[in-house]
Design goal:
231 residues; single chain; alpha/beta; disordered N terminus; 2 domains
Length: 231
């Protein structure tokens, strides 16, 4: 059985989209069994990139977090991988101190609705402009192109959610980093606090890993999560 993985680093030019055989249980740590060898290599590449980007800053040991596809159709798996990669990059850009501070101050009601409204208005404007220019270049009249572009943007926005990278519950700030499929975003969001039997939730795993870092180096140590699609 092979696992398809899409990893996008904070650099927009870096992307890895591959299919690979899964690692055997004896070849990989217990928390990452069933993850492809390339997923582990991708994690190491991200860690190397962060080392170069952050100078002398180090990272904590890698915490592997797997997210279920739940009821998503297979056509949306690529979008799930994309959003997980964005959340991973955002999470690993945080220092341990920043993560723990954000977690301590997290409140589900703490989100400013104006932030999302402004971001949605800005994103819609970009969609309208791009569509209108494309229609105009194709020979359409300006007024008709604008009307069609606005209808197109409205249809697109109905299925899009504002994305936080990472989600606020995982230490993210109230800043809109991107837009993406709403069903996929909800699928990820509901799993942060989800406990599977006696296993800790994903955010509890991050909390435990971050709390194990000595206080003296938390300001220089970066988070190190690997977010992958479960198979």
């Amino acid at each position: 059985m092979a696992q398809e993985l899409f990893v996008r680093d904070v650099s927009p030019s870096y992307a890895l989209h591959i299919a690979s055989p899964l690692l055997a249980a004896a070849d990989t740590p217990a928390d990452c069994r069933g993850v492809s060898v390339y997923a582990v290599l991708a994690c190491l590449l991200l860690r190397l990139h962060d080392r170069l980007r952050c100078g002398t800053a180090s990272q904590m040991p890698c915490t592997c977090l797997r997210f279920s596809t739940q009821r998503l159709p297979s056509a949306k798996f690529v979008e799930l991988d994309r959003q997980l990669a964005g959340q991973q990059a955002g999470l690993n850009a945080l220092t341990v101190a920043e993560y723990l501070q954000a977690r301590a101050g997290f409140s589900p009601a703490g989100r400013d609705p104006q932030v999302a409204r402004r971001a949605r208005a800005s994103w819609r404007s970009k969609l309208v402009q791009a569509r209108s220019e494309a229609l105009t270049h194709a020979g359409g009249g300006e007024a008709d192109a604008t009307a069609q572009a606005q209808s197109h943007a409205d249809r697109q926005m109905r299925s899009l959610h504002a994305l936080h990278n990472p989600d606020r519950i995982a230490g993210g700030h109230d800043v809109i980093a991107d837009f993406g499929d709403g069903q996929v975003n909800s699928t990820i969001g509901r799993q942060w606090n989800l406990m599977r039997g006696r296993l800790p939730s994903r955010v509890q795993q991050l909390d435990a890993a971050a709390s194990s870092v000595p206080e003296a180096v938390r300001a220089e140590t970066h988070m190190n999560g690997m977010l992958v699609r479960d198979t």
